[in-house]
Structures are given as C-alpha cells and as structure tokens.
Amino acid sequence: MNKIAVVTGGTKGIGKALVDLFSEYGFDIAVCSRNSEQLNILKKEIEQKYDNRVYVMKTDMAEQKEVLRFAEYIGEQDGEVEILVNNAGIFIPGQIHTEEDGVLEMTINTNLYSAYHMTRALIHGMKKRKSGHIFNICSTASFVPYVNGGSYCISKFAMLGMSKVLREEMKEHGVRVTSVMPGATLTASWEGVDLPEDRFMRPEDVAAAIWNAYKMSDRTVIEEIVMRPQLGDI
C-alpha cells in the first residue's frame, strides 16, 4: 500500500513543486484546486513522469462542504495519508481600514478554515498509526506585519497560531507538525510585480526544505521553517 501525500492548492507555485518532489520519492498524490483543467493537466504530466497515482478533485477550499468532500474522496483511495500540506491560500492586497467588505471572511475561509477542516478530517488515521507529518504553509507575514497585508496578515498570524497548537496536541500521538514560513516566492501572488525573477525564492527551494524536514527520523521534528530571499524581504 503506497503512502499518499495530500497537497491543497497544488497546481501552481509551491504546491506544484511539492507534488513533483513527493512523486519523485515514490508517493501517490492527492491534490485539489479550483481549476479542473489545470488539475487534469497536472495529473497526466505527473503520472507519465513518475508512474504513480495522482488523485485530483476540483475543490473550493473556502467552502467547508467541499473541503470535507475532498477529504472523503481521499479516504476512498488505496493508501494511507502520510503527509498533509495545507497550502491552499489567497492574497488580496489591502489595508484593514480600506479593504472591501468580505475580504477578511474570504481570506480566513481560504487560508485558515480550509487547513483546520482538512486537518481534522485526515488526522485520525495518522494518530491511529502514530505516524504522519502535517505541514502548514504560513508566511513571514505570520509574524511580521506589513502595511499592504491587511486580511492576509491576519489569516497567516492565525494559521501560525493553529499550527503551534496542533504541534502541542500531536506530540503524544507521534504526528509531526511543521509551520513553514516562506518570504517572497515566485508564485502567482506576485504576478505583475516589476521586479527581477532572481529577487524571489524558487518554489522548488521551499519544497526541498519541506522534504528535508520530513525525511528526518521520527525522533525529531522541525517545528518551524523560516525562509527569505537572499537579499531579504521585498
């Protein structure tokens, strides 16, 4: 029975880099996004490249019922969830006092509640086996506020808090929990920004850091990964 790595929001950026890397190391993959065409392209590309199984489902992670439907779909597959990467997220630039109504709710639903519900749905198997690793993709915005961060910063501060609580809860159950806090990474969030590509981190570098944390012995957990571009924050 193959191990399954679950990556939410996995068709672009860090998520896609993780799908590729986990597949390289023999994992089957369960991945979701809001774009079914991109999911099908990714499935075909990865399965042809690595001869593994890629389970895809179009999912709006801002909707609890869709999150739970994706989790149920994963449970129907032949394999055990070994890795969960809560990666789905959105970034809408703005300030608290000028943002449009509803931005906070949309951002919290996508960036925080999705991870909360996915974790609750999939963690029981990990606890039973006393094995598994949950990676929560936070941000340097989880601990460094910035003026144009608005609701995004709020959601990422909360995500880090959830991740810290989960780490404490899972100690006795043998499930490792890691908070990942990347700085500016070359993803869709930065499209249209007039900066050279080499000013950003590569998604593949973030994926490599996550893999290195996972492959340590089960006696050790890297609780937090903080990464920034070599030249610092943007």
Automatic annotation (TrEMBL):
Alphabetically sorted, this entry's keywords are: Oxidoreductase
- UniProt cross-references to SUPFAM superfamilies, sorted A to Z: NAD(P)-binding Rossmann-fold domains
Question: Which InterPro entries does the UniProt entry name for this protein?
Answer: NAD(P)-bd_dom_sf, Sc_DH/Rdtase_CS, SDR_fam
An example Gene Ontology CC term for this record? membrane
UniProt cross-references to Pfam families, sorted A to Z: adh_short (PF00106)
The record's listing under CDD domains reads: SDR_c (cd05233)
Q: Does the keyword Oxidoreductase apply?
A: yes
Give one GO term, molecular function aspect: oxidoreductase activity
By sequence similarity, the record places it as follows: Belongs to the short-chain dehydrogenases/reductases (SDR) family.
Q: What is this protein called?
A: Putative oxidoreductase
